Each structure stands twice: as C-alpha cells, then as structure tokens.
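Hi X.,

You mentioned you wanted examples for the new student's onboarding notes, showing what a folding record looks like when two proteins sit in one file. Here is a clean example. The first protein comes first, with its sequence line followed by its structure tokens.
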Amino acid sequence: MTDVLLRAGHVVAVLAVVLVAAHVGRLAARAARQPEVIGEIVAGILVVPAVLAVGGTPALTAVLPTDVVSPLKVIGEVGLVLFLVGVAYDLRHGGSGLGARAIGWVTAGSFLPALLTGLVMAAWVVWVADPDVRGDAPVPALVLMVAVALSVTAVPVLARVLEDRGMADSPAGRLAMAAAVVTDSAAWVLLVVAVGINGGIVVSLILIALGVTTTAVGRILLRGRGPLSAAERFPRATGAAIAALALLAAFQFEHWGLTAVFGAFVVGLAIPGGAWAAAVRPVMAFGRLLVPVFFVVAGMGVASAPRGAVPWVAIVLAIGLAVLGKVGGGYLGGRLAGQDRRTSVTVGVLVNTRGLTEIVVLQAGYSAGLLSVRLFLALVVMALVTTGMTGPLLSLIERTRTRAPKPVPVPELPGSTP
C-alpha cells in the first residue's frame, strides 16, 4: 500500500512539474509573439533532454522510472483524445461564409502541392537517406505517412493565430481556415489509412467502415429532442458522457490496430451543433490542459536518438519542402481563387501553420512504427520551425503593406468640373 501511494505521489509530482513547464512555455511564447502552443510543445519536449543534461541517465531513471512513465503515457493519451473530440467537432461545424469556388481553389492549392512535396520527401527517405533514417516500415505506409506529415495544417493553432491578430474575419483568414478544415479532415483519413497499411489493410478498411457507420448512426440518434434537451439542461453530465464514450472508442480502435485518434474523431464528428457546444467545450479544455504530458512522452522518443546523430539533411529538406508546398501552394490557390497577391501570400503563410496537429500526427506515426526516431525528430523540428515562421512572416507582410506608397492625388485643373 505504501509503495502504491509513493508511486501515485511521484506521478502527481511529475504531472505538476510538466504543467508548470507548459505554463512557463506559454508565457515565453507570448513574450516572443509566438502562438502559445509553440511554448507548450517546446517545454514538453525539452523536459526529458533537460533532465538528461543535468543528471544524465541515472537522473532520468530516478525522475521518470517505468512505473511512472506508464501512467503519464495514459494521462497524455487521455488528454489528447479529449482534445481531439473538440477538434473534430469544430471541423464539422466550422464555416467560412465564402464561395465554394474560392474555398475549392485555396483548399486544392494548400493540400495537393504539399502532398506532392511530401511524396518527394518520402522518395528521398526511401531511396537516398541512411537506413537509420529510413527505418523498417513498409514502403507504402512510410510514403503515405511522410506525405501526410507535410500536408497538415493545424486548425486549433491557426484559429488562435487568427484570433490573436484580429484576422478571423479577413478574406485571407476565412479562406485559410476553410481550407485548413478540409485539408485536416483529409489528412486524418490518410493517417488512418497509413497506420492501417502497416497493420493489415483489409482489417483496417473494415474498422474504418465501422467508424463511419458509428458516426452516421450517432448523428441520427443525437438529433432527437430528448438528447438535445439533456445537453441543454445537464451540460456537465453530458460532457462527462461524451468524454467517456470518446475514451472508450479511442482505446478500442487502438486495441483493434488503428490509432486512438480515429476513435476520438468518430465521437467528435457525431455530435450535433448548437446547444451541444456547451458540453463539448469543457471536454476539449480539459484535454488541452493535459496535452503537454503527451509532449513529454514524445520528448522521451526524441531524447532516445543517439548522440551526434541529428539528421541535419533531413531537417533542412523537410523544412524547405514543407514551406514550398504550403506557402507556394497556398499562394497559387489564392491567385486561382481571384485574390490579390498580398491576400494570396498571407493565405500561404497561414496554412503553413502546423503546430499541435502535426505533432499528434507524427507521434501517431512514430508509435505505429512508421517513422524512425531520426525521421521523427526531423519532422518535429520542421513542425516547430514552420509554425514559428507564421508570426514573423505575417508581421513582415503587414509592414510591407504599411510601407506601400499611397497614390498621389492628381490636382484639379482650373475651371475643371468637380
């Protein structure tokens, strides 16, 4: 009994340290005029390397022994699942108020070129990179996984950037958000397919069909007046029920061989809009609070890479291709949608925001054995760099707009008609 209490106290202490580190990371990111999630991700991932730097492997073993890491992993996955329920809910019910043609062009521009650059990156990994970067995942699964990794846009981080900068109602902001919603929906599906290829495509297709059916049935059942009335009268109890169902679905689908992300999306996409938002928001907020624990577990994977084996070529290539696919593709989509150059380049910069969503995708691929430690590290750095570029590039665009020469008024000639 004493050992159990000591272990529980150890877990609580580490959890408190992680949450404090996340808070410090948010403050630092805010001071640097970066999205707060950047600070959370960096703080979470650096916890393990910081312990290693201070005390070496013995300190890491003492601070994070196996019987503490296992509960932390579960806590991080619980937070991730609850957070993604809200993400899926927002993906379903988000709107832009823009024309279908404009949204279609921007979506195609922000997704297809990025997917193509992802295929280029995957080809380099398969045919050129060292075996320790390549890993031993099946080629189709690896190629699809890398392509997805370079095509993701983080809807939650993008929403926060638009809110912080007052761009939510601007043409560029609305176009980027609409494109990100569609792009992320496609990326999650492709991620599930990639994981499924690694685990058995036939079984995975059956499970995907089961998930889609469950979502459709859930939508029908929850549309009734009875469930809506319960959500309105008892939002907290309804939120607890949603959280329980999401965790059950997530871990069951993971047990069957798919990622827990899929189970979270099955539940989140089934929830109607309107009054149900009051039940979903606390679930998402609680999950968001625990997500930094997920980053610590990811940091342990990054820290396990051999010293002196940083894949610099993979990092540089990933960043270059990621920026080319998203910024270039977003700009092209904006121009084809009839937007001016400044709006189009702003759209490209916005859809290049990856952040939390990208880290979740990469961790899912790493946990499924699709990414080697070094390739995972390279793509994590790419996600942080591309997301960190968003704020400075937007400021640069704003400064160029401010400095743009204003038209000189032409003086009226004497006797001219006003």
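Then the second protein repeats the pattern, sequence line and then tokens:
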Amino acid sequence: MAVKKLNETTYEVSVVREGEELKHLKEHVLVHFKDAKVDGFRPGHVPAKVIENKFKKEIEGEILNHIISDEYRKAVAENELKPIADIKLEKYEHNDDKVEIVFTIPVLPTFELGQYKGVEAEKENVEVTDETVNEEIERLKESATKLKEIAEDEEAKNDDVVNINFEGFIDGEAFNGGKAEGYDLTLGSHSFIDTFEDQIAGHKKGDEFDVNVTFPENYGAANLSGKPALFKVKVNSIKRKEEAELNDDLAKELGFDSVEDMKNKTRENIIKREETRAENEFKNKVVEAVVNATEVEVPEALVQREIDYQINRFAQQLQMQGMKLEQYFQMTGQTLETMRESSKENAEKAVKTELVLAEIAKAEEIKATDEEVSKEIEKLAAMYGLEKDALIADVRKNGNYERFIDETNYRLVNQKTIDLLVNEAKVK
C-alpha cells in the first residue's frame, strides 16, 4: 500500500494484490459461497471453478470490498487521517493473478489559524430619533385600523375591501378556477389580472355588471394565456379603513397605559431592537474578519453536503407554504443544477466558518458542560411546549438521541467560541 497526500483535503491510496496474497484472499472469499445453490450439484459440493464462473461478479465485488476495507483502516490509522465522506474509487484493474486499486479519501484539512483575538470591526452607534418613534407609532395605529362597511349609496374606490361573487367566461364558456363567492378583494392591490380591479371601482353594493379583461401572455395556465375573458361580478359589500385616532383609549387597546406610555415604551422597544441588530451585525463582522484571516482549503465533499442541507431546508420552507420544489423550478425557470451552482459560494463560506470556529474551540479548549447541555435541552423543550424528559423520550423513540446531544453540544461550543471572539474584539 502506498499513501500519497494530493492536497490538504484529499489522500490517495494505491494498492496491489498479487501472487500468494491474492490467492489466499480469493480462497477466503470463496468460503462464503461454498453453500451456494447451483443446478446439478448438492449444496456444499459445488467445485470451486464452477462457483468462480457462476458468481464471478459477486466474488470480484467481495475481493474489492475486502481490500479497500483493510487498506482504508490502515491508511487512516497510520496517517492519522480524519475522513469526512465516503472514498472515491479512482482505478480498479484486475485479472486472475493481479488486482490494482487506487482510491481517494476526503479528509479534514490541517491549517494554521490566523489572528482571532483582538480583531477590529465596525459597530454601529444606535440612535433613535423622534421621527423613528413616530413612524413606529403610525404603524401601531395602522395595525389598529378597522374596516367599516360604507353606506349603500357610496361607490368603491382604491384601498376599499370589496366582497364579490364572480364567474369567468371565455368565448361564452365558463372555465375552471374562474368562479368564487364571497371573495374579499382590496382594490389597488393588483392581485387580479389586467384592469379587473379598476372596473370594480365606482360601483356600489348590490351592483351586478360585466368586467372585460385579457389574460397575460405568460399566464401560469396555458389554456388561458393571452385570451380575452368576461367576468360576471356582483358586489356584496364594500368596507373602508377607518383610521384610528391616537388617544389614550387606542393606547390602552394596544396594551399601553396612555399615549405617553405608548411613546416611551415604543422608544425603549426600538432601542432594544436596534441594539440587538447592531450587536448581531458586529458579531457577524468579527467572525467574518477572523475567518478571512485564516487560509484553509475547503473540502469539496463538505461543500456539497452543505449545499444539500441548504436546498433541503429551502424545500421544507416551500412545503410549509404548500409548494413543492419542482413547482418552484417551473415557476422560476431554475433547475436543481443552477440552484446548486448559485448556492456554492455561500456553502463554501459556511463550511470555512465552521472549520475555523472548530479549530479555535480546539485551540482554546472550549467545551460545553453536562449542566449547560441540560439547560439548553430545557430551553428547546420549552420552545416546543414540552417538558425536558418528554422531549428526550421523543428523541430516543426516534433513535436520534446521540445525534441530538452532539448537535446540542456543537451549538453551545460554537456560541461560546463566537462569544470569545466578540469579547476579545476591538471596535473600530
């Protein structure tokens, strides 16, 4: 066996088995096939040559697995490697007398840390003006705005919420998905095609009328794209926003004691929010500076794994919105390949950050205590509305306990490491 370091993330292992060594290995493998069923022979009495001919591919596969398994363990142990993914078979040549194998092992890179204590980063000085507070107060007022039905002789206008029944026709024929009753439509929202909303403006409650529109050329349903349509519409009700007045009653409705209390607490909330944002931005800048100060070759295997993780997480978010990844690709014109390519840069940054933080934690001997892990599990359980023991029981039931503890430990160590960097950092 010969082991060669190709680069910081890949080792190559070359193996040759021949002569008596290969012969003994074949004999060892053939033992597993001695009871194989072969027509014309009793189990256990099949000649070796017959077995070799009938199960040639299976025997070759067993020999390959034996050699790779043995040499892989030796290469890892003797060279103190840290494998991070499955091996890749680069070469496999064989005949009755000789087997040549070359495979590569993806490993964690070794690297020297750059400066990670005392790095400099900019930190925003938070200032909250009266204007910012007033804008937030306006948003709170907007949230308290109520919809009130207008008089029957009043006409609908932009920003009104109009409740309608409608049915669509193309060439006099109703089409699927073109009918609804009791639908609330905000005029001016541009949620309906063409001038649909414009043609409702000016009508009153109880009006029944026709709306003529044309579906856009790139409309999602091919059978409707570019076609003119007529909608029969009836207005059931019209509601208009009734702007809330800023007074103590409104303040109490929103959970404050008075307008003055509302303004003071709103200012406090904004300050807390902005200080948290500024602190998080500073933290991110510190970590980025530390990571940039270290040169490390990022393993492609870990990058691809991170891309898988990012895409799976995105697919789960889509699923929560009732959409599948395939539907998203159809709507956006993307493909899985283009998504993987566009995700690569962020994935490389994420992997490098993870490697550098892990190396710093090792250098600083940062660990999470059993008590800290226990408290973190309690917090997680509370988030899910569970008792700690119930969460652990659920994780054990799914067979994920060891992984769950490892991930919890990793998060704590990671956060402690970042806290160290931030505490040691200097504000520009």
